[in-house]
Amino acid sequence: MKNLCFSLIVFFASCFHMYAQNTQFKIISNQNNSIVVDFILTDYVIDDYKELDGDMHQKIKALDAVAILKKGHPEVLKFTTNLQMPNKGVSSVNVISTSFDTKSDINLIPSKGNLYRNINPETIPYEKAGIYQQNNFYPGSLAVDGVPYIQRDVRGQTITLFPFQYNPVLKQLRVYNKVRFEVNFNTKTSGINELDEQRKSSYNKLIEDSYTRRYLNYIPKKYTSLGEEGSILIITPSEYISNLSSYIEWKRQAGFEVELVDISTIGNTQLNISNYVKDYYQQNPDFLYLIIVGDHNKVCAYNCGSTGGWMSEIKWSDAKYGLVSNSNDWYPDIYVGRLSPSNLSTLNIMLQRNLEYDITPDTSSYYKRAIGLGSNEGAGYGDDGEADWQHLRNIRTDLLNYGYTDVYEFYDGSHGGQDANGNPNSNMVSNAVNQGIGLFNYTGHGDLNTCITGNYNSNHINSGTNNGKYPFVISVACNNGTFTSGTCISEAWQRASNLGTPTGAIAAAGSSILMSWAPPMATQDEIVDILVESYTNNKMQTLGGLFYSGQMKMLDDYNNADGREVIETWVFFGDPSTMIRTDIPQDLAVTHLSSELVGVSSLTVFSSTEDAVVTLKSNDSIISKSSVQNGQALLQFNSIELPDTLEIVVSAYNKVPYFGQFIVKDLPNPYGTANELLIGPNPVDLNGSLHLIFELESDQEVSFNIFNQLGQMVFSNVVDLDQGFYGPNYTDVSIDLGKIGITTGQYIINAKYNGQTFSKPFFVQ
Fold it and tell me: Domains in the chain, please, with CATH?
């Protein structure tokens, strides 16, 4: 077979990460008990790849497809999509119609299976299993429905398409360019992983957007968002509790419900912890983030069993605690992270780093710089058939297109572009880290303390000087997260400090075992695809949301023992509720009343930043929270009957949090202090009436002027008023806002009487 046009192949490879959203699947009809879907094969190439036994063999590449990693079997590709299923019942898939072309004289390369990264795939010989002697088209089925799974409040199912069907005896490849299939739902028959309808459900915008993107047939829920990003459960030993108080206070001010539990009250066993988290999930519909504070000996990881084989390892897991829907699947329901200090001192370093990152972030441009550190191996075998360095170069393109200014290319070998000749060294990596980067992607070989490419290890992290500049580290490598038997490099990223102040990383993801080649690369790709907003829906801003959404996409593609092992053993070190920063943090523009009189029960906060979270704190309690919608957030609370100073906090993605005060003043008499201008209600409805109350010393002429935020007068009036019309010496004036034609926003009203001018701000909503 002749090679395809080289320019076409280059163009195709360059497009692999430009189009992240899977557009091959389209709903034709959607009924209560069935859904009809069209699959359209858009782009693919068949390329001469390698000569075996004197014959040239071919490999297939296609957008949004992954190879079937079955050793010795033809390396055909598959596509996946996800459907929302009824909460109960079973499903079946039937192919309605097809259209295909037949390619002749095809010797399709066999798969080497799923290998661990301690092995160079090039050293493993190709082997053909007995299926190469069978005169049948492989894999046979065109469309297969997967085992149902539960993702929080949705019962889902992966549908897999096999548009490439290969007959090794005839050397024919059928390429199905269109497949129309129907999925039927039967709710009268009991099925697997049925959804418990008794569990309470709540609206979460982050999760709701991910549903919309993930499920082809999802119908968004019609709830009103309160701006809540999910609640947090912290499990920790008693010795750390007091040190966590300030951090917990901040998380609550950032809009999270937070509950802390002492591990001694649960029992430090995986069964006790797992049961506690599952029960908590059933009782708390907002529960989204689990933060484990403590090393393995303080709060034990989950033992998922042995990997088997001659290099058998224990599959230590934290993510297993996030599989809480009482279903037998591997799709995370909550996002689990671990702060793993060695003592109180390193815990304080971690907490200080997170508070800096959230509250007083560095305002330089380091967030827009990234590192891609990768090996020279994996060509034709990694996810999308990419070598590690190719995979990272495609990620680099995505980041640069999103607005990153620098993405360092540190690759083994010499690959042109910004990659220097030869192999990178630790000084190159250290210098870039110390200068400041927001994202660190590693793809290569690893061990407990080292990224083998560049020989970058825990010692370099511990001697780092990147104070205030903390990256998110995603490591696709063996054993970078093996924290149960020593201090791994991912823990070093957490514990690092310089001169008593934090360095290291805001979070690091590392594997607790030998890591496989292709599946985790799919996770890393998806994290970046979501980060750079490749999807119409599914904009994730939290570190946990990014990481675990990437894991779920990987599981769609590799939903077998290989993908499940990656889910279980890839440990997230850090707070999963932390919002990532991808740009220089900007100050929030926020306006609100500075004070009101006792009896107030609401406050409107105005901001141009949509979805910003707003909280109001009295003493040690959050008394109200909301989010900015259409430029304003309404905070409602029980009437405050005593003077108080309330704290307002507004926080948002890539913004510096706003901290303000709202003072509730006492009223010494029924009408206020002499000569004080009183107005209400505040805020006032656009078509409502604004009331003014004031004390007159005599019958007199009173003038009123209303000014907008630009200082422009929008209303003026002069009236003759009698002393004592309203109470002893008090007079009431009403202004009908609907008749004067003003819009929503903040205004100032001036009233001139008793020889003085009095001013008061108010808001129109």
Answer: 6-198 (2.60.40.3800), 231-573 (3.40.50.1460), 586-665 (2.60.40.10), 678-764 (2.60.40.1930)
